[in-house]
Amino acid sequence: MSDYILVLDEGTTSTRALLFAADGIPVASAQEPLTQHYPQSGWVEHDPREIWDKSIACAQAVIAKAGGAAGIACIGITNQRETVVAWDKVTGEPLTNAIVWQDRRTEPFCSSLRDGGHEGEVQRRTGLLLDPYFSGTKMRWMIDNVPEVRAAAQRGTLALGTVESWLTFKLTGGAAHITDASNASRTLLMGLEDGQFDDGLCDLLGVPLAALPGVVDMAGPLAMTDPSLFGCSIPITGLAGDQQAATIGQACLAPGQTKATYGTGAFVLTCQGAAIPRSTHRLLGTVLTQIEGARTYAIEGSVFVAGSLVQWLRDSLGIVEVASQTEELARSIPDSGGVVIVPALSGLGAPHWQAEARGVIAGLSFSSGKAQLARAALEAMAHQTHDLATAFAADGAAWQTLRIDGGMAANDWMAQDLADMLGITVERPGFVETTALGAAMLAATGAGIYPDLGAAAEAMRGDLTRFTPQLAAGVREARLATWRKALAAT
Ligand code: ADP
Fold it and tell me: Measured in angstroms, how far is the CA atom of residue 206 from the centroid of ligand 1?
C-alpha cells in the first residue's frame, strides 16, 4: 500500500528529502549540503547538476527507508524561490550555473528599468518591485552574458525555470517543463490577475516566452516521475515556492494569518484570501495557493539577511562554532551594551529596498565582545521584523499573532525577543520544518488524500509553543530608537 508522502525540499544551503505519514508525522529524512559559489562580490551561484544529483540521492535514500517506491503515494516539491536555472530541452543538461535569489548582479538593469519609469506598472501587474531579487532579470542576464544560453535561445532549445521547474523536468525524464503559480509569481513575468506569463512583461525584460515553463496548479495530478528513477512511476502532486509552502505548513489559510520563516533570509507572509494585495508600503503581492485554477494571495515582506548573519559570525568572525551557541551568548548578558547590527550584508530588502546598502555595526566600546555581537545579531532579527510589522500594518494587514519557523526559530531566546519587540504572541510549531510540511499538505491534497488544504492542515499540523510579550515598553522604544539611528547610517 502507498502510505507515504515524499517531499523534496530544495533550500538555499542544503537539499533534503523527507518522508511524511498521512498524519503529518515525519518518518525519514536525508540531507546534503549545497556548495555556494561566490564568483564576484554580490554574485551567488549554485551548480544545477549538484542540485539534481543530491536531490535524487536524498530521494532514493528515503525511498529505500520506506521499503521502495511502491510505498510512496505522491511527491511534493518545494524550493528556494527566484533562483534561475537555464538548460537545454534536448540534452537535459544545464547551460550555466544557477543564479541564486541572493545575487545582486542585475541591479544596473533593474535601475535602468526604474529610471525608464516602469516600476509602477510592473508593481501593479506582478505585485513585485524592480529588484535583482526576482528571477526575470536573472534570466535576461544569462541570455545577454552566457553564449551557450543565447545559442540555445536561438536554436529554440532553451529552457528557463526556477529550481522546482528544473527538478520536475529531470524527474519526468524531460517530459514536463512546468512551474507552479507561486514560483511563477516571483519572476516579474506573470500577471497576478490572470496567473500566466505575460507577453508584454516578457518583452519589457527581454525574456523569450518560448523558453519559459507552463504555469500549473500547486496541487493536483501535475506530472509523473520517469519509472527508471525509482523503480516505478510516482505522481508529483504538489509544487510550491518555499515561503508559500511554509505559510501553508503553518496553516495561514485565512485572511490576516501570518507566518515568519527565519532561515538564510527572513520571509513574512500574511494570507489575503482571494483579494490581490495592493501594497503602498513597498511590500510584495504574491500567489499563496492555486488549486483547480483558483488563486489566493499573500502580502509578503522579505528580509535578505537572517540566519546568514549568524553563519557570518560563525564562519568569518569565528565568534561561535555552531549557530545555536548564539543563544547561550545572548543569555549570558543583560543587554547588548549598546551594540546594534544592521545586517545589510547584501543590501536591504523590505520595506527599505536599498540594494546598495551595506552592513553596519554601531555602538562598539571596549566592553563589547563576542556575547554583545551575538546578542546584537539575534536582536537584529526582531528589529528587522518590527520594521516589516509597521509596513504590514500601514498596508492594512496588521498581525494578531506571528507563527515562526525555519532553522533559526529553534532559538528560544530569539523567539522570546520577537514577542517582546513586536508586542504580540509568537507561536512555534513543535516541528519547525513547516516548508516541507506545507509541501506535504499540498501533495496530499493533490493526491486526493485530503479534500482541501484546510483538511490537510487540520490532520497534519502538530502542537505549538507560545512566547508572550514581557518586555517593558520603555526598553523596547529605546532599542528601536538606536536601531533606527544605525539603519540611517547604512
Ligand atoms: P535555509 O532553508 O535558508 O537553507 P534553514 O531554515 O535551514 O535555512 O536555517 C539555517 C539558518 O539558521 C542558518 O543560517 C543558521 O545560521 C541559522 N540557525 C540555525 N540554528 C540556529 C540557532 N539555534 N540560532 C541562531 N541561528 C540558527
Answer: 36
Contact 74, 235 (CB under 8 A): yes
Ligand 1 centroid – CA 324 distance (Å): 9
Give SS3 for 193: coil
What is the distance of C-alpha 256 from the center of its chain?
20
Mutate to test the pocket of ligand 1, among 15, 35, 36, 310 (most ligand atoms within 8 A of CB): 310
pLDDT digits (tens, 9 = 90+) for 106-164: 999 999 999 999 999 999 999 999 999 899 999 999 999 999 999 999 999 999 999 99
- Strand, coil or helix: what is 177? coil
What are the strands, taking DSSP E only, across 242-324?
A: 258-262, 266-273, 284-291, 294-303
User: Whose CA is closest to atom 7 on ligand 1?
Assistant: 407
Q: Which of 181, 158, 179 lies closest to 167, judged by CA?
A: 179
Is the entire prediction scored with pTM above 0.85?
yes
Report the nearest atom of ligand 1 relative to the CA of 264.
3
Angle (CA) 9-208-191 rounded to 5° is 65
Contact criterion met (CB below 8 Å) for 226 and 204? no
What's the distance, CA 416 to chain centroid? 23
Residue nearest to ligand 1 atom 22, measured at CA? 324
Measure 323 CA to ligand 1 centroid, in angstroms.
7
What is the CATH architecture assignment of 4-243?
2-Layer Sandwich (3.30)
Instruction: Dump the DSSP string for 197-236.
Output: B-HHHHHHHT--GGGSPEEE-SEEEEEE--HHHHSS--EE
Q: Which of 275, 341, 276, 343 shows the shortest CA–CA distance to 304?
A: 343
User: In the structure, what pLDDT confidence band is assigned to residue 2 with cuts at 50, 70 and 90?
Assistant: low
If you ran DSSP here, which 8-state letter would residue 276 be given? P
Q: What is the domain partition of the chain in residue ranges?
A: 4-243
> Which of 264, 316, 320 should be mutated for ligand 1, with most atoms under 8 A from CB?
264
Backbone angles phi, psi at 259, to 5 degrees: -130, 155
Write the secondary structure of 61-123 as one string of H (helix), E (strand) and C (coil). Answer: HHHHHCCCHHHEEEEEEEECCCCEEEEECCCCCECCCEECCCCCCCHHHHHHHHHCCCHHHHH
Nearest CA to ligand 1 atom 26: 408
pLDDT in tens, 203-245: 999 999 999 999 999 999 999 999 999 989 999 999 999 999 9
**Within 6 Å (CB) of ligand 1, which residues are found?**
11-14, 263-264, 307-308, 310-311, 323-324, 326-327, 406-408, 410-411
